[in-house]
From TrEMBL:
UniProt GO BP: protein ubiquitination
Assigned protein family: Belongs to the Tdpoz family.
PROSITE patterns given in the database record: BTB (PS50097), MATH (PS50144)
Pathway the protein acts in: Protein modification; protein ubiquitination
Domain MATH, chain residue ranges per copy: 21-146
InterPro entries noted in UniProt: BACK_BPM_SPOP, BPM1-6, BTB/POZ_dom, MATH/TRAF_dom, SKP1/BTB/POZ_sf, TRAF-like
Protein name as annotated: BTB domain-containing protein
Organism lineage: Eukaryota, Viridiplantae, Streptophyta, Embryophyta, Tracheophyta
Domain BTB: 175-242
Length: 340
């Protein structure tokens, strides 16, 4: 007990609950061929990891139980983990990206291994037959056990190195190299560029050295694309003001040109998410030109439906592809001949 007039030390603590969120897309093609496989039988996604735990989407084309009377398809989230608290949604997207089924996130606890939670009456089979090709998207948040932390503990702030580099690029302080792109001049720091790109390393410090020139000319590139390239070099993030259809092909070309493998993969991911009947031919040509194997495979998987193939062949982009990339068109027809 404190003596009269003695100040008591003030202490405090806080409760912290960590969460980890991830998304997995499970593409289902040719549903009409899956219908009739039988009640209680499912097709599963590949295993994906969120929060250090493994998960799988299980889709039942004819429903998971007889009570559905064969009218509904079912979908569930499966886990081999135990004592894991989560919130998740399982939503259905049509091929062109429109939402067909939207469910609100609900909390669940996987008390033991092998449990599944989801929707017995996920969507009417008649709607799936109309779509035939669709994507089931799982947005999953793993909720860790809460823990109490003494607030006197030193909390290390997150890294803001990228903010400092972005500020240095914007201010131009210490810049020692200039680039001219379609008449627009950009200041940069040779050491930063060289550290991030093997091509810039060769151009600025190697036998290809151009640093003696007062201003290095960059041909065949738009200023907006070069600005985005510089931004990524300094911050390791892609600018938000780029549009997939208009700017992503140019940025992919720049990433490939300067040996920026991470940026190239990010561009591939953006282009993959925007694949449609109208964009397929142009995306396939880009994938072939820049040796983007995963993007090319995604384009060819998109063509697994006969109706989609017929629609793509009718586009102007496909006609241009016949001229610019005849080998890709031959691969297209070879694949089409093997599919139903």
């Amino acid at each position: 007990m404190a003596n009269h007039g003695e100040c008591l030390a003030k202490t405090s603590s806080r409760c912290i609950t960590e969460t980890f969120t991830g998304t997995h897309d499970f593409e289902v093609t040719s549903y009409s061929l899956l219908e009739g496989m039988g009640v209680g039988k499912f097709v599963g996604s590949s295993t994906f990891s969120v929060g250090g735990y493994d998960w799988q989407i299980r889709f039942y084309p004819d429903g998971d139980r007889e009570a559905n009377e064969g009218a509904y398809a079912s979908v569930f989230l499966f886990s081999t983990e135990r004592s894991v608290k989560v919130k998740f949604t399982l939503n259905l997207f049509a091929r062109e990206g429109s939402i067909s089924v939207l469910n609100a996130a609900k909390p669940y606890t996987f008390e033991s291994a092998g449990l599944t939670y989801g929707y017995t009456k996920f969507v009417e089979k008649s709607r799936l037959l109309q779509l035939n090709d669709f994507t089931i998207r799982c947005n999953l948040t793993v909720i860790k056990e809460p823990r109490t932390q003494d607030v006197r503990v030193v909390v290390v702030p997150p890294s803001n190195l990228h903010d400092h580099f972005a500020s240095m690029l914007k201010s131009g302080k210490g810049a020692d190299v200039k680039f001219s792109v379609a008449g627009q001049v950009f200041d940069a720091h040779a050491c930063v560029l060289a550290a991030r790109s093997p091509v810039f390393m060769a151009e600025l410090f190697g036998h290809m050295r151009e640093s003696t020139a007062p201003c290095i000319e960059i041909d065949d590139m738009e200023p907006l694309i070069f600005e985005a390239l510089l931004s990524f070099i300094y911050t390791d993030t892609m600018p938000d003001n780029l549009y997939v259809g208009a700017n992503m092909p140019g940025l992919l070309d720049a990433a490939d040109r300067y040996g920026m493998d991470r940026l190239k993969a990010m561009c591939e991911q953006k282009l993959y998410s925007s694949i449609s009947v109208q964009t397929l031919a142009a995306t396939l040509a880009l994938a072939e030109q820049h040796h983007c194997v995963a993007l090319k495979d995604a384009c060819l998987r998109f063509l697994s439906s006969r109706d989609v193939r017929r629609a793509v062949k009718a586009t102007r982009g496909f006609k241009n592809l016949e001229t610019s990339c005849p080998s890709v068109v031959m691969e297209f027809f070879d694949m089409a001949a093997r599919l139903p």
